[in-house]
Design goal:
four-stranded antiparallel sheet, 3% helix, mainly beta, 170 residues, single chain
């Protein structure tokens, strides 16, 4: 198969979106692990399928060292668009907040910590302005730095259109 562009593809591993930090998906393989057996009606080894197995090899960029700063709280009902290409946790405290919306969906109505996706929008509805603090959600360093002790779920999506191929793996 010839090389193809991965523009618009997505890659997730262990719950982390590494799409913006992936240089290439080098190999995807899988199927049942083959087991050599010798049945009594055969004069040689026969291979039978064992447990399913899979693997992915990929090349990633190293994590962005961009520091997260908390922007000023916008006026009530004015959406704030994140300029970060990674998710952040937004903790809202104080004031009189009656609604919190992330990317157009209502997610809460007061103090709390909310996940804001990469380049997402957050809108606060309030009568007295709260304060908020933003912190970076772990990225590829968190996903890849620990030595896994169990299978890790990785998923590659070939484009984002419904019906396009996807490759789940563990």
């Amino acid at each position: 198969m010839a090389k193809q562009s991965g523009l618009g593809d997505n890659f997730y591993i262990g719950g982390y979106d590494l799409s913006g930090d992936l240089a290439s998906v080098d190999q995807i393989s899988g199927g049942p692990a083959l087991i050599d057996v010798t049945p009594i009606n055969s004069s040689a080894n026969v291979r039978i399928g064992g447990l399913r197995d899979g693997s992915m090899q990929f090349t990633s960029f190293w994590e962005s060292t961009v520091a997260v700063t908390s922007p000023g709280v916008p006026s009530t009902t004015v959406p704030y668009v994140s300029t970060y290409n990674f998710p952040v946790l937004v903790t809202v405290v104080g004031g009189t907040v009656s609604g919190v919306t992330v990317n157009g969906s209502s997610v809460g109505s007061g103090d709390g910590t909310y996940l804001l996706p990469a380049l997402g929008t957050i809108t606060l509805t309030y009568s007295a302005a709260p304060t908020w603090s933003w912190v970076k959600v772990g990225t590829e360093h968190d996903a890849l730095s620990g030595l896994p002790r169990t299978d890790t779920i990785a998923t590659y999506f070939r484009g984002t259109t419904l019906g396009n191929p996807a490759t789940p793996g563990t």
